[in-house]
TrEMBL record:
InterPro entries: Aldolase_II/adducin_N_sf, Cro/C1-type_HTH, Lambda_DNA-bd_dom_sf, ThiN. CDD domains: HTH_XRE. GO terms for molecular function: DNA binding. It comes from Natrinema salifodinae. Pfam families: HTH_3, ThiN. Residues 27-48 form the HTH cro/C1-type domain. Gene3D superfamilies: Class II aldolase/adducin N-terminal domain, lambda repressor-like DNA-binding domains. This is HTH cro/C1-type domain-containing protein.
Length: 299
């Protein structure tokens, strides 16, 4: 009798640790630094480096595993992702790969052939827990922010009040269910500057726009505010987005709601300003990376 957890311990974890240790070493970290980041001994890092640990090639070659290792390697090396956050992202990947018919389930069935005839999925743990849901949102948000930080010309779209990229949980109802950048994103000498790691409950205004759009039927989970320019509206429209205007001098929730009800497919909301109100465009999307990719396409 072999449990799927044994596959994880014997096959998955050694493979991912080996890949991640190699990725971090390639980024210039010492063996000691890699050991600290991964919470393992230097001798273990040495074994990974010299190929003394058996790697499961099917796991190592999986696109999702490779993508996760690259993203975690980037974040851990830069100090943008903590070891705890990395652990949770790997946990989420494990649970997804345990789903019936997926990679770890296949390896489990091969180890225990009788399971192949049972027809059950193998989600041993709940991947939809509040903690994992929140971490997935923050993970997506961090990836979206990295896209913006490396997008040449993005600073030209940052309004005087600053931009904020936000994303929410699937059942978001309140500002506390929306994650964003504390202090917003600002242009500092031509460089898009993210002052702190994203957190929940730190964005008031962009979060309200996103929540208002969702309450009135918009199928979106993320958004960003950028400077208003009619040419940007035209460009977004040409790229297939539906744009709708709202009046920010009124109650944001009701005015955004009215705009969405008039244009149910709107993914771009804008207001042209007023007394003491800076004109802005709000780009909405499925997740933070989707929104960031849209912004990148504009510059």
């Amino acid at each position: 009798m072999q449990f799927v957890e044994e596959i994880v311990v014997d096959e998955f974890l050694p493979t991912v640790r080996s890949l991640l240790a190699g990725d971090l070493r390639d980024r210039g970290l010492t063996q000691s630094e890699v050991a600290d980041v991964l919470g393992i001994s230097q001798s273990a890092v040495s074994k990974y480096a010299h190929g003394d640990v058996t790697v499961n090639n099917r796991i190592a070659d999986d696109d999702r595993v490779q993508e996760t290792v690259e993203e975690l390697g980037t974040g851990l090396a830069a100090g943008e992702i903590s070891p705890v956050q990395a652990l949770i992202e790997i946990e989420v990947l494990i649970r997804n790969l345990e789903a019936g018919g997926d990679l770890l389930a296949q390896l489990h069935e091969e180890a225990v052939p009788e399971l192949a005839d049972h027809g059950s999925g193998f989600r041993v743990h709940d991947p939809e827990s509040d903690l994992r849901t929140s971490e997935r949102v923050l993970s997506s948000l961090r990836r979206g922010l990295r896209i913006l930080e490396t997008t040449s010309g993005f600073t030209g779209l940052i309004p005087a009040v600053g931009s904020n990229l936000v994303a929410c949980t699937p059942d978001a109802e309140h500002v506390d269910d929306v994650a964003g950048v504390p202090g917003r994103i600002f242009d500092v000498k031509g460089q898009a500057t993210v002052p702190a790691d994203p957190e929940f409950g730190v964005s008031e205004h962009v979060a309200q726009v996103l929540l208002a759009a969702r309450r009135h039927g918009a199928d979106v989970s993320a958004g960003i505010n950028v400077t208003y320019d009619p040419e940007l509206i035209d460009e977004l429209t040409q790229r297939g987005h539906v744009a709708a205007e709202f009046d920010e001098s009124d109650d944001v929730t009701s005015s955004v709601g009215a705009a969405i009800e008039e244009q149910p497919e709107a993914s771009v909301l804008y207001q042209t300003g007023g007394m003491g109100i800076e004109p802005l465009i709000y780009v909405l999307g499925a997740d933070a990376e989707d929104v960031a990719d849209t912004i990148r396409s504009l510059v």
